[in-house]
Write a structure and sequence with these properties.
Elements: H1 5-16, H2 29-35, H3 37-43, H4 52-72, E1 83-90, E2 108-115, H5 120-130, H6 147-154, H7 165-171, H8 176-185, H9 190-226, E3 230-233, H10 239-255, H11 257-260, E4 267-271, E5 275-276, E6 282-285, H12 290-298, H13 300-320, E7 325-326, H14 338-355, E8 368-372, E9 377-378, E10 384-387, H15 392-430, E11 435-438, H16 444-454, E12 466-470, E13 474-475, E14 481-484
Parallel strand pairs: 3-4, 4-6, 7-8, 8-10, 11-12, 12-14
Antiparallel strand pairs: 1-2, 5-6, 9-10, 13-14
Helix pairs in contact: 9-10, 13-14, 15-16
């Protein structure tokens, strides 16, 4: 009786969307990436350097979106679970805030949507529409597509196909509306998420163990060979990607060992561009070729000279501001090269000199400040956020009135750090974790709260795992478990 249900379903779909339905699987993976270029441009983490929390949220969401797109392309897939994503979207020429949260004063807005699509084309259209981005460019990706189908497809997310419930009962297909209703009705709990994802994470972690050992070996070998302080990565690249980068550096060391030894005592960071960072780390751009890396190592002596001049400049600023220390906090500030940071300090110093503001010598010793481009503020960690072009008179008044509060905040920060480290050790021991760490945007207060509640639970799935405290639930490609710091537990909230 029901053997004709599938052909009937296709016939009905063709009647409702006669133009675009034949192309519902027309996009290849490469074409989907190309079609999403405006989206990637609007949410790329590199554009959120001044906003570390938003940058990290976009990074995590992009990872989850990548997994979703990969699964759509796997042969024989049936149905993907609804995936909720949050992105901070920059204001671009294409974007508008119709039906979305308005842009903040920082020039971006939060966009939240749930993906439950069955093919690449509908996924791409849904993402672009959710972010109020144009879909007209997709026509050029397939010459068989016409302008009219795209315009009709653009509104597809607002006109879902409604099937009678009996169809799903008889065929056994999953009702997408039911899944979406459940997503909005049920809040994920830690135990339920671990029950659903624990085995998958264990399998991925087991598969990654040989590469993890190879990564440790390469890192130790290069650190010893070049006498480096450390080797780090700016982004959460997978283990295989990191091994590839270290192999590349190892080959360069075999060819130009004496040149690379100029980095003795330095920390090397694999990142998006080559140079020296504001704190003196050697940055190797992962897209650069060996020739660029070699040139960078050859220029290190001149970078060291600039670094010494920068330290003198910091001391001169500190002297003018009553002993307050100028610092650069990697987790809270945009990624700057040494040249860029020196230029900022130089501008700030010259403004101070011209203003002739007076602080009692060494009256602000023990306090810290960082440079930014916004209004003066006191961070909860105790340091001052000072704009480079701040009015000196206002700066003096602000620092003097907030100095005592800053000292109290810094004292509380140190106390909190001790508690945080103790709780990390206790949690690692209780759950026999291989590693427990947090993303840079997670504060000590959030980490303390998270660990305290974890210690009250019995979580056997965590045994031997790598656990990252983040803002989202996610299983990374190498088996690391990511959970939000404010995870919920107990009965599902309805």
């Amino acid at each position: 009786m029901f053997c004709h249900l599938r052909p009937m379903r296709r016939l009905c779909l063709e009647k409702i969307f006669p133009h675009w339905f034949p192309f519902s699987r027309a996009l290849s993976g490469a074409e989907a990436v190309n079609a999403l270029r405006p989206f990637y441009f609007a949410v790329h983490p590199d554009f959120f350097g001044q906003h570390p929390v938003e940058r990290e949220i976009n990074e995590n969401s992009l990872k989850r979106l990548s997994v979703y797109l990969e699964n759509l392309q796997k042969p024989g897939f049936k149905s993907l679970k609804p995936t909720q994503l949050t992105f901070y979207v920059r204001e671009t020429d294409q974007s508008s805030s119709d039906g979305q949260e308005p842009f903040s004063t920082s020039g971006f807005r939060a966009v939240k949507f749930t993906l439950h699509t069955r093919d690449l084309l509908s996924t791409v259209l849904y993402i672009l529409n959710s972010c109020s981005l144009s879909v007209e460019h997709i026509q050029s990706l397939n010459t068989n597509m016409h302008t009219q189908p795209l315009k009709e497809a653009k509104r597809m997310p607002d006109r879902p196909i409604k099937w009678d419930k009996s169809y799903y009962s008889f065929t056994g297909f999953k009702d997408p509306d039911e899944d979406l209703e459940q997503v909005s009705r049920v809040e994920t709990t830690l135990t339920s998420w671990l029950d659903n994802n624990g085995k998958s994470a264990v399998k991925k972690l087991k598969n990654s163990l040989p590469l993890r050992k190879e990564l440790d070996r390469l890192k130790d070998e290069l650190s010893h060979q070049l006498q480096l302080s450390d080797i780090r990565w700016q982004r959460s690249w997978g283990i295989a990607h990191r091994c590839s980068q270290l192999h590349s550096l190892s080959r360069l060391a075999q060819q130009n060992l004496e040149t690379l030894k100029k980095a003795k005592g330095c920390t090397i960071i694999f990142t998006d561009r080559s140079g020296m960072s504001a704190v003196g780390h050697v940055m190797l751009g992962t897209m650069d070729v060996h020739h660029h890396w070699t040139k960078l190592f050859e220029r290190l002596p001149s970078y060291f000279d600039l670094q010494r001049r920068l330290m003198i400049l910091e001391d001169q600023i500190s002297y003018l501001l009553g002993g307050i220390q100028v610092v650069y906090i990697e987790e809270l500030q945009p990624v700057l090269t040494l040249e860029e940071y020196y230029s900022l300090l130089d501008v700030f110093y010259n403004r101070l000199l011209k203003s002739r503001i007076l602080f009692h010598p060494r009256s602000l010793r023990g306090l810290q400040m960082i440079l930014n481009r916004y209004a003066p503020s006191l961070h909860e960690l105790g340091h001052f956020n000072i704009p480079t072009l701040c009015d000196p008179a206002n700066l003096q008044w602000f620092i003097l009135t907030k100095a005592q509060q800053a000292r109290e905040n810094m004292k509380r920060k140190e106390e909190l750090k001790v508690i945080e480290n103790e709780l990390i050790q206790a949690s690692t021991k209780k759950f026999s974790l291989e590693k427990l760490y947090k993303e840079p945007s997670i504060s000590s207060i959030q980490m303390v709260d998270c660990c305290k509640r974890l210690l009250e639970q019995s979580l056997p799935y965590l045994h031997g795992m790598h656990l990252c405290i983040s803002h989202f639930y996610s299983v990374m490609q190498d088996g690391d478990l990511c959970i939000p710091w404010n995870w919920k537990n107990g009965e599902a909230i309805k």
